């Protein structure tokens, strides 16, 4: 018989150090269904960032190289033009030493008008003499460095120049020393000590360069924006299958094993999808096989009990006849007859319990709830079983609790727990009934040795025997399993534990 | 001792129940099919019908309906627990009570006695016929008439009506009614009460959907009136 109904792994009560818990709905660890999640550093973000980075580096490098080359070209051309123009202006000057300031100033004014490619301001320095084409004798833009180079010996007749930025404005400063050539020096130029300086503003070149920078930027920004499009397309191409895969995996997790992914294309993701589909099909097949086997086993248990019930109905109806007449038979026959009668009764209980368990397994057990007085309900259960001796069962029932429950099933729960306590524990058994929050709590405690910690997690198992050598007890071995199922059907929990002061305590909590 | 007609297709159950009841002094006639049972009905004139629901050919519910068409014979169904749908259908068809198989003979006999027991009169000084609205209830003659016309009530319906009208406007819970009218335990099947109330309403109410006589108090039970 034991082989007929095997404990279903899924309904095994959870184990706790202090006791065995059995929750109302089958203890499913169901994860909360999640909607599409936002990943701050998800695949899409990373792909887009990578594309943008590549585009930015490309644009930046190109722009920087172009900018540098163009800037140099512009500046060099300006410099060369200016320096050679300045030299051409200075060279033909006829200078008599010592300098005549007025004449020199006139010459400077002439040169200042010839500025090329742009107007310049011209200065001349000789010793401490300072002459300029403007109203100020010298310019603060001319650096000591340039002066030093201009007065170096041997002189550099073609002049030197320097780019200076002052107050945010770029200037080109040039210096050309006035030289004289003598036969004594064999044509080499000798510095006269007089140096001409020219200062030219470079703001137009600067504006040109500025325009180039903004052109580079204006070109780069649309390029980056354009780079977004392939980035989004690529990320969509990757993300859509990934999202589909996630949805499918989630759906499979919720038990929809027929979930499949639309796999198209020949890339790695399509391969992945196909692998997923194959695995899903395999899983579906194995689960279906398991379910079939389980359903067959259950149907078999149910069928067996059904078939046993009909002959039992006939036998049970005549056990009274056997009991009554046993007295007039010889002692051996009488014993045999009484044995048959007693065992028939037990068999009938066992078959009924098996039928009941089969109905729970087949989810065919129905709840017929009614609103009742809970204390009345428990009192009637105890009365009906003749558990009225205070030395055996002591009830502490809170009066006036109206509860919605199935009276027949609640009767089974209380009767099984009290019967179990009387059989395996020791009297007096206390039955406590009270409301706690929105729960109806029924507590059955005995004064026995309690339940061994190894046994505690298994007390609600079917046909579980604490001691393998122990012979069959008065119960069917299904009483606590049926209790558990009945409590679950009410959406409640039942828990077995040991009281600190000794004895086992079973606590049933059911919603009011 | 009451005469019992047992309709049961399984020979061992048939024989076992017959043997057990006969030992207790009942006169028992058995029939293996519904058709044979109906045929035996007229000739045997039983006081009570024990009816298996699962029968070959004409099933128990059909037999029950057929019997109710012409008589108010007490009917107890034999059923297997878990055949919940059959129980409800059988009760709707007019059965007074049911017994779950397998059952000991003492249980079967206790049910038979309960169904056959007459309602005990609470007070002797009352007038035989009571009037409640258009209902006239004769407690001595055990008849009920509505607007002067006799209403045929099955034993359980009659007992329920007598119990409720004995204390008009008092609320009875289903469990109380199970204990007093059906002599079941407190934890019996409340569907017996509900099915019986439905049948009774169909017979005595003007509009069964809006009952006047037998009113429901949701969460508490039933009461008679107030009219």
From TrEMBL, chain B:
UniProt keywords, alphabetically: DNA-binding, Phosphoprotein, Transcription, Transcription regulation, Two-component regulatory system
Keyword rRNA-binding: no
Organism: Streptomyces tanashiensis
UniProt-listed CDD domains: REC_OmpR (cd17574), trans_reg_C (cd00383)
Signal sequence residues: none
UniProt xrefs under Pfam families: Response_reg, Trans_reg_C
Domain OmpR/PhoB-type: 126-226
Classification via SMART domains: REC, Trans_reg_C
UniProt-listed InterPro entries: CheY-like_superfamily, OmpR/PhoB-type_DNA-bd, Sig_transdc_resp-reg_receiver, WalR-like, WH-like_DNA-bd_sf
Origin superkingdom: Bacteria
Coiled coil feature spans: none
Segments forming domain Response regulatory: 3-116
Name the record gives this protein: Response regulator transcription factor
Residues the record lists as 4-aspartylphosphate modifications: 52
DNA-binding region(s), chain positions: 126-226
């Amino acid at each position: 018989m034991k082989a007929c109904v095997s404990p279903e792994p899924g309904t095994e009560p959870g184990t706790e150090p202090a006791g065995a818990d059995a929750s109302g709905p089958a203890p499913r660890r169901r994860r909360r269904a999640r909607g599409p999640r936002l990943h701050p550093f998800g695949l899409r973000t990373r792909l887009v960032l990578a594309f943008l980075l590549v585009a930015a580096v490309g644009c930046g490098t190109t722009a920087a190289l172009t900018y540098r080359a163009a800037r140099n070209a512009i500046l060099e051309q300006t410099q060369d033009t200016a320096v050679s123009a300045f030299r051409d202006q200075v060279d033909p000057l006829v200078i008599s030493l010592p300098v005549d300031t007025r004449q020199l100033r006139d010459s400077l004014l002439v040169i200042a008008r010839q500025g090329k490619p742009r107007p310049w301001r011209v200065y001349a320095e000789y010793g401490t003499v300072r002459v300029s084409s403007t109203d100020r004798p010298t310019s603060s833009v001319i650096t000591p460095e340039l002066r030093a180079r201009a007065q170096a010996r041997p002189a550099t007749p073609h002049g030197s120049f320097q780019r200076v930025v002052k107050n945010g404005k770029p200037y080109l400063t040039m210096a050309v020393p006035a030289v004289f050539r003598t036969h004594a020096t064999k044509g080499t130029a000798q510095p006269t000590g007089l140096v001409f300086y020219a200062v030219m503003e470079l703001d137009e070149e600067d504006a040109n360069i500025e325009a180039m920078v903004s052109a580079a930027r204006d070109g780069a920004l649309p390029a980056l924006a354009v780079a977004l499009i392939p980035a989004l397309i690529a990320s969509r191409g990757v993300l859509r299958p990934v999202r589909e895969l996630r949805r499918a995996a989630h759906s499979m997790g919720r038990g929809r094993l027929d979930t499949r992914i639309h796999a198209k294309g020949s890339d790695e993701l399509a391969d992945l999808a196909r692998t997923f589909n194959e695995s899903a099909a395999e899983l579906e097949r194995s689960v279906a096989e398991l379910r079939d086997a389980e359903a067959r086993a259950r149907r078999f248990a149910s069928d067996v009990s059904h078939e046993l019930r009909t002959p039992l109905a006939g036998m049970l109806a005549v056990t009274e006849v056997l009991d009554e007449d046993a007295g007039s038979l010889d002692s051996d026959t009488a014993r045999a007859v009484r044995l048959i009668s007693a065992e028939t009764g037990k068999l009938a209980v066992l078959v009924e319990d098996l039928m009941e368990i089969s109905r729970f397994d087949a989810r065919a057990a129905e709840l017929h709830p009614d609103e009742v007085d809970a204390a009345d309900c428990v009192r009637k259960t105890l009365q009906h079983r003749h558990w009225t001796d205070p030395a055996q069962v002591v009830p502490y029932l809170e009066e006036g609790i109206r509860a919605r429950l199935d009276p027949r099933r609640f009767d089974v729960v209380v009767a099984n727990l009290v019967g179990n306590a009387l059989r395996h524990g020791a009297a007096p058994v206390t039955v406590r009934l009270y409301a706690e929050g929105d729960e109806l709590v029924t507590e059955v405690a005995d004064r026995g040795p309690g339940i061994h910690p190894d046994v505690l997690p298994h007390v609600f198992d079917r046909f579980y025997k604490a001691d393998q050598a122990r012979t069959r007890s008065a119960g069917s071995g299904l009483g606590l399993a049926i209790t558990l199922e009945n409590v679950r059907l009410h959406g409640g929990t039942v828990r077995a534990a040991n009281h600190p002061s000794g004895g086992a305590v079973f606590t049933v909590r059911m919603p009011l | 001792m009451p005469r019992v007609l047992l309709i049961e297709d399984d020979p061992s159950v048939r024989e076992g129940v017959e043997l057990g009841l006969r030992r207790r002094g009942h006169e028992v006639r058995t029939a293996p099919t519904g058709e044979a049972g109906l045929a035996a009905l007229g000739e045997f004139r039983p006081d009570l019908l024990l009816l298996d629901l699962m029968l070959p050919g004409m099933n128990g519910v059909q037999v029950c309906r057929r019997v109710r068409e012409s008589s108010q014979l007490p009917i107890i169904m034999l059923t297997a627990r878990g055949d919940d749908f059959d129980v409800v259908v059988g009760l709707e068809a007019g059965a007074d009570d049911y017994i779950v198989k397998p059952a000991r003979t003492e249980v079967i006999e206790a049910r038979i006695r309960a169904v056959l027991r007459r309602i005990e009169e609470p007070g002797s000084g009352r007038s035989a016929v009571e009037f409640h609205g258009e209902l006239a209830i004769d407690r001595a003659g055990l008849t009920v008439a509505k607007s002067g016309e006799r209403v045929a009530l099955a034993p359980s319906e009659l007992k329920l009506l007598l119990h409720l009208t004995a204390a008009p406007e008092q609320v009875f819970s289903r469990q109380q009614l199970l204990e007093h009218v059906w002599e079941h335990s407190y934890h019996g099947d409340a569907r017996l009460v509900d099915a019986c109330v439905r049948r009774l309403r169909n017979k005595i109410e003007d509009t069964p959907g809006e009952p006047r006589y037998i009113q429901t108090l949701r969460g508490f039970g039933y009461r008679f009136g107030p009219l």
